[in-house]
Amino acid sequence: MKTSLDLTRGPIGSTLFVFALPILAGNVLQSLNGSVNAIWVGRFLGEQALTATANANNIMFFLIGAIFGVGMAATILVGQAIGAKDMAQAKRVIGTSATFFFGVSLVVACIGMPLSRHILAWMSTPPEALPLAEAYLRIIFMAVPFLYMFAFLSAILRGSGDTRTPFAFLLLVVLLDIVFNPLLIFGIGPFPEMGIAGSATATLISNVISLVALILWLRHRRHPLWISRHENAVYKPDLAILRALVVKGVPMGLQMILISLAMIMMISMVNAYGVDTTSAYGAALQLWTYVQMPAMAIGAACSSMAAQNVGAGRWDRVDGTARTGTLFNFLMTGALILPLVLFDRSILSLFMPEGSAALEHARHLNHIAVWSFLFFGVTFVVSGVVRATGAVIPPLVILGIALWGIRIPFAKLLQPTLGADAIWWSFPASALCAMLMSLAYYRWGNWRKATMLPAEPDGIAVPAEIPAQPPSPVADQGPRA
């Protein structure tokens, strides 16, 4: 069965929708997996164990976020090469990226394991949870090479137009993780009783098995991007590609760091209003995690689709991708927001004790802030398309202005007047400004002239200055936003 999609042909709407669905399903899977693991640890090992995993997982998420940008850069480079029908260049990108990811992952693992306790202490992990967190984190560092390589292979497959294969093997990761958690935590059957370390070991084992299975599947299917033995020379780093991975990837990774730091600032302001307000905000955050998933999936799909069309010189389809992605964002995100507003009392009460005084606070702030994800989605889609050419700095600047020039100051400066409402209104205010700035840059910016790599005879011969080519023989029937 063919899994890769040619994103340069056919109707934009249906192609984008089919391409984005596995990404969305994968995001939901990962969140549900985290929730299930938290239930095992929290309910059966206690609050100290749950605190330990929360601290260790913050580090794991940071480590994954740190290479998010490089993975996106690899996705775009592969997508542009596939769009240009240059498989040799695609394999050069994959070879250099694989060497980079594997090398970095080994360095992170070797440094992180012996320093786990020091890192956790630096984070002010509660002393009673520190030994548990260290036992958990040391194994997570052992898993880093497998986590990084799985993320890398998923990224290049998405760049080639294949989102179903990464989803299938991510599903395998999640199922194995769920199964191995209780077996290793409690020592069921032939398995040793490992306590909290068993939860981390389940993550390690599930990622090892799934990564090996994915590699064997690619080899068995003789995937077009599979690097055979006589092509091993491509694993020698190409300096131009390596430079692009770092120079273009780091700004995309910095966006994750900016978001994380801003969320820390926001919760520190919320904490000042007491337990009821903080728990209300925490319950709303649980919902918002799922509300933003359609936009993130559509944005990632738009980036891959735009990258292939940039490679093919199909600028008409690049613009069509942006319009269609924006329309899908409003439809899918809006379809989630509406029930969360209409049935907010029932949904939010799932995260709170019976009769909690925080419920009304949660309903109030949710009514104000949840609409911001409509604007956030447009920014995510437009930024994904813009980055597909190699224009990575302007989206970073726009995000920095929206979060640190608008959201944080808005929340801080208006609290004397609005109280906690200043914090909640800062979400739609900053999201709206980010959307307007992103649309303005899309309309008037020079992103179409950006490149991922210098134009060379043996590189991706797709300078962005090339005017749009005539439409392909396959009619573009995609919807227009």
Automatic annotation (TrEMBL):
GO MF term list: antiporter activity; xenobiotic transmembrane transporter activity
CDD domains: MATE_yoeA_like (cd13138)
One Gene Ontology cellular component: plasma membrane
Residue spans crossing the bilayer: 12-32, 59-82, 94-115, 135-157, 169-188, 194-218, 239-267, 287-307, 327-348, 368-386, 393-410, 422-442
Localization in the cell: Cell inner membrane
Keywords associated with the record: Cell membrane, Membrane, Transmembrane, Transmembrane helix, Transport
Full protein name: Putative MATE family efflux protein
Provenance organism: Luteimonas cucumeris
